[in-house]
Structures are given as C-alpha cells and as structure tokens.
Write a structure and sequence with these properties.
Blueprint (H helix, E strand, L loop, with lengths): L9 H19 L4 E2 L1 H8 L3 H9 L5 E2 L3 E3 H11 L6 E6 L3 H9 L7 E7 L8 E3 L2 E4 L4 H8 L3 E4 L3 H13 L4 E4 L12 E4 L2 H13 L8
Parallel strand pairs: 4-5, 4-8, 5-7, 8-9, 9-10
Antiparallel strand pairs: 1-3, 2-3, 6-7
C-alpha cells in the first residue's frame, strides 16, 4: 500500500478485503450502484462505519446516487494490490495447516500457498494437495528460492519464536500467526496474530453482554 493508505486506521484496513469481496458479489450480480445502507444490510456492518471507512479515501460516492459498484471494485482492487500475485509459505502441517493446504485461498486467485514445511516431511520433500512440503531444515533455502515474503505460522508454541527468528534472519516481511505466542520481531516485520481461543472468548462475551457492534 502507499504511504497515504498506510495511515488508514487498523480497524478500517482490516475491513477493506471484506468491502472488496462484497462489492465483487454486487458487480457479479449486475448491480451498477449501491448505497451505504445496502452494503450495511449485506455485510452486517453499521452504515455509519462504512461511510466513515470510505471517507478515509476521499469522495468515493455522490450524495443522492450512492457508490458506483465497478468503480469501487477497481479502487479496492488497486488499493489491496489484487492485480499482483502473492506467494505464501505455510510452516506447520498439523490439522489447521492441512486445512490451509486443502483450501489454499480458492476464492482469491492472487494469493496462494506455494510451499509448506513440516518435521514429518523428508528433506527432499513430498506433495500434499499438490503443494510441495519439505522438512523445516529447508525453510531458508526454499523461501529464498521462491521469493516468498509472507508466511502462515501454525507450529506448536514451543518452537514459534525459534522459527520466527529464522524468518527474521532472511528478511521475511509478514507473518500470519496462528499460535498463541506473542512473537518478538523487529519493527519492519508485520505480524497479525489470530488466537482462536481469544476470538471464541470475545464472541462469548459479545453474546453474554448483548454487544451488537461486534463486526470489527
């Protein structure tokens, strides 16, 4: 993203792929224009939040007309760099890792897992769901060879930081962390941690406390 886009609030940034997906659905259905209330109805996000998110990018719509669907699709495609292919590595092929390999971002043709690593794999590799899987001893070699800059981390907690240190050493740019470990990384490396147990606890809290605005 550009320097200007990098100033967008984090909560807004997390919603951008959702806007892109739903706007694509509208475009595929032949819809030419859409209002914030229609987007709100489809996405279950407050219309005021949508208008506020869009306002960070300037005048994306017109009063009394709404938003041009194809224009927004093109705008968010460019904003999210969807015209550029992103190759991703997966480290850890347990139950969750296997699910990632089988799914492999089927609805997003610009993102794909191209290599995976697991201690049970041989050094010379094997294939799972059509993706080569190597022993972790090959991490540095294969990631450099394939030019991968983003990794999905689904390893046991006890080795998460050790693997991360190796990734830092080769200049990786981003980690999608599915371990509960708060990884220590330099400022230039982006980490997004998804702790499923925390997300579940948050959902239970929302339910028990009747929190309505939980779509963040």
């Amino acid at each position: 993203m550009s320097e200007e886009t990098s100033k967008i609030p984090q909560a807004t940034s997390k919603r951008l792929p959702l806007y892109y997906r739903f706007l694509q659905n509208f475009a595929n259905a032949g819809k030419k224009r859409v209002s914030s209330s229609e987007l709100s109805e489809a996405m279950k996000i407050d219309a005021a939040t949508i208008r506020r998110d869009f306002s960070h990018f300037g005048a994306l719509g017109r009063k009394g007309y709404g938003y041009d669907v194809q224009y927004l699709v093109d705008f968010f495609r460019q904003t999210l760099d969807q015209d550029e292919e992103t190759d991703v590595a997966l480290i850890g092929v347990g139950s969750l890792g296997n699910a990632f390999l089988k799914y492999n971002f089927q609805k997003n043709h610009n993102t794909r897992i191209v290599v995976a690593f697991d201690p049970k794999a041989p050094l010379d590799g094997k294939s799972i769901s059509g993706i080569p899987v190597y022993h972790p001893d090959k991490i540095e070699e294969k990631i450099k060879e394939l030019g991968v800059e983003v990794v999905i981390l689904t390893v046991p907690s006890r080795v998460a930081q050790e693997i991360t240190d190796r990734l830092v050493a080769i200049g990786l740019k981003g980690i999608l962390n599915f371990t509960p470990v708060r990884l220590a990384v330099p400022d230039w490396l982006r980490v997004l941690t998804i702790d499923l147990s925390v997300e579940l606890q948050s959902l239970i809290y929302f339910i028990k406390n009747d929190v309505k605005d939980s779509q963040i």
